[in-house]
Amino acid sequence: MEKKIVKGDHTNPVISIRGLKKSFEDYHVLRGIDLDLYQGENLVVLGRSGTGKSVLIKIISGLLKADEGDVEVLGSNIAHITEEALQALRIRIGFSFQNSALYDSMTVRKNLEFPLVRNRKGITRKEIDTNVETVLDAVGLLQTINQMPSELSGGQRKRIGIARTLILNPEIMLYDEPTAGLDPITCIEINDLINEVQERFNTSSIIITHDLTCAKQTGDRIAMMLDGQFQRTGTFEEVFDTNDNRVKPFYDYNFIK
Q1: How confident is residue 251, by pLDDT bands cut at 50, 70 and 90?
Q2: Domain map of the chain by residue range?
Q3: Are 145 and 109 in contact (CB under 8 A)?
């Protein structure tokens, strides 16, 4: 299924990054990143393992601090806001972890209730139930509401993880390797879900992946990270219309006949 380009607002980015650098001792991971994410856009970040893709979204969400550069998220420079303001900003950002990050001791219902009760003071029982059922219906798993995570498949756990992220109605979604470890059919289902979330909840998303099928199906725009910087940015076809030996192996591995 071809991904349609989203005609978002390209005048006011919801995330704007300039000159971002991050090192771990002598290992220079990010070497001067510039990037914008626009309203209503799915932006895919591609790159080899260890190139700093996950580091990037951890900095965006305030889980890591940058060494240099500016990261502005929803109008706030995350390096210059208070801890209280950062916590409030995080509620507006949904982080879908690679391992789904569900609590094994809680039912699906309790997993989804947890962020609501923690972040929405004074919320009523009826409001909690409505929110839980709405997001479970959105990911197609309302029937699992009383099940334990151990009773679910890998794809179902991934969907529940996305539902738990959606329950706070975030404006930005950050997906970390959403199709990792899943079979091809389930990968397609997760890709479709990412697009459905974009349309139904009007989210702007950064999708970290090295799965080119995921990139092609979900990405309105692709940013290829090479040597700690974004070397190629554009549509899927624009990024891979090259003989660059750093880029071609990605395509050949995924699509070579």
Answers
A1: confident
A2: 100-168
A3: yes
